[in-house]
Structure formats: C-alpha cells, structure tokens
Amino acid sequence: MVVALKLGYEVTAVDFVQHCIDDTKSRVESIDKEAIYISYTDIDVIVTWGVFFCNWKEKIVEFLKKANRILKSDGEMFCNFRTQRDDMYSHSENYGKFIEENQSAPERYLYFTTKDDLEKW
Fold first, then answer.
1. Count of CB atoms within 10 A of residue 110's CB?
2. Would you state the pLDDT for residue 31?
3. CA-to-CA distance for 25 and 13, rounded, in angstroms?
4. Rounded to an integer, what distance in angstroms lies between the CA atom of residue 39 and that of residue 54?
5. Residue (of 61, 68, 57) closest to 112 by Cα position
6. How many other CB atoms are there within 10 angstroms of residue 82's CB atom?
7. Contacts for 17 with CB less than 8 Å, ≥ 6 apart
8. Exposed end of the chain (fewer CB within 10 Å): N or C?
C-alpha cells in the first residue's frame, strides 16, 4: 500500500484489527494522506493476500460478495487461497479444519479450501 501511495495512486486500506489500522496509519503519515471513507461503488482493485484462509468458509463467501459489490465493473481482485497443493498443507492432519491448537500461529489458523468449494461459491 505504501508503495502504491508513493507512486501516486489513490489508496484505501481497510482492516478489522485496530492495531493493524494504527500501524498502517503510522506508516503513511509521512506521505501526508488522511483516512477517507469509500463510497463502496468505485474501487478499482482489491488486494487481499494471506487473509482468506484465516476465516471460515461463510466469512470468505461474505467477503467475496461484498468485494463484488464495491468493485467497479472493470475492477479486479488479487487474492490467494490455501489448497491441498499449498506448501503449508503438509503441516495439517485435519484437512478442512483449523490446524491443531498446539501449532504456532499462523499454522493453527489455516483452513484449506478445495477446488469444489471454490466452484460452489
């Protein structure tokens, strides 16, 4: 995000975790940008990397529907999903569930989505 701001792009950052919001604000203060509220109809690009697999399937679907609603008709979304072929998959014995509690974060919070699940959405 900071790189895009420095290149002159208008950037809107959204997060649900307060310390992440505070950290982002401190990083962009030197660029002299203020927090703004979006109109929810004019977003060109959404980048969500390393986020989806931290949520239940229902939350992922909810976010994808919201993303579709707020993107411009020619907008794009860049995201990643964890799958059976993912390099982190080998850490889990419980496919389709959160990884065991004795794992350290982020491994204990991973959810591996199947191709069939993605096609249903």
1. 20
2. 56
3. 9
4. 27
5. 57
6. 18
7. none
8. C
Average pLDDT over residues 99-107: 50
CB atoms within 10 A of CB 71: 18
Q: Is 15 helix (H, G, I), strand (E, B) or coil?
A: coil
Q: What are phi and psi of 76, to 5 degrees?
A: -135, 155
Does an H or E element contain 57, and which?
helix 57-70
Which tokens is 114 given? 């199947």
Structure-token match 């979304």, residue found: 77
Q: Are strands 71-79 and 43-48 parallel, antiparallel or unpaired?
A: parallel
Interacting residues of 110 by C-beta distance below 8 A, sequence separation 6+:
53, 54, 82, 88, 91, 92, 98, 99
List the chain domain ranges: 2-120
Mean pLDDT across the chain: 66
If phi over 0 gives left and psi between -120 and 50 gives alpha, with beta otherwise, what is residue 8? left
Question: In terms of Cα–Cα distance, which of 73, 75, 77 is closest to 63?
Answer: 77
Beta strands in the chain (DSSP E): 43-48, 71-79
